[in-house]
Amino acid sequence: MLQWMAVALGGAVGAMMRFGISTYMLPVVPGKFPWATFFVNVLGSFLIGVFYTIIVEKSLWSPQWKILLMTGFLGALTTFSTFSIETVHLYLRGQMLLASAYAVITMAGCFIASACGLTLTARWV
């Protein structure tokens, strides 16, 4: 039961953060580069590297934090399904170059961010 509550709490915080970023910090504009989704996906990729290092590799925090932070918080914060539909919409609007650039930049950015999160945290911790 506590695991479910941890997922729910983390998910609520992640969802609120996602909403705040896409509504107030980087508002979504149809037909333009989806900066909010890109930002939360790269941020989430970095943070999963950080949390994985601290919780799984270094065992500095209890395994319960993995459920709260990695499953709940990052699961709600990051937006692969939104990324997918935004890419498809750009493509369907005839913006093939922007759709392709968005897909490649997002994937590369997320891979690099995860590697940076793992590497930097392993060095600092």
TrEMBL record:
It is a multi-pass membrane protein. Na(+) binds at G75, T78. It catalyses: fluoride(in) = fluoride(out). This is Fluoride-specific ion channel FluC. InterPro entries: FluC. Keywords: Cell inner membrane, Cell membrane, Ion channel, Ion transport, Membrane, Metal-binding, Sodium, Transmembrane, Transmembrane helix, Transport. Belongs to the fluoride channel Fluc/FEX (TC 1.A.43) family. Fluoride-specific ion channel. Important for reducing fluoride concentration in the cell, thus reducing its toxicity. Na(+) is not transported, but it plays an essential structural role and its presence is essential for fluoride channel function. The chain crosses the membrane at residues 7-27, 33-55, 67-85, 97-120. PANTHER family: FLUORIDE EXPORT PROTEIN 1-RELATED (PTHR28259). Its main location: membrane. Pfam families: CRCB. It is found in: Cell membrane.
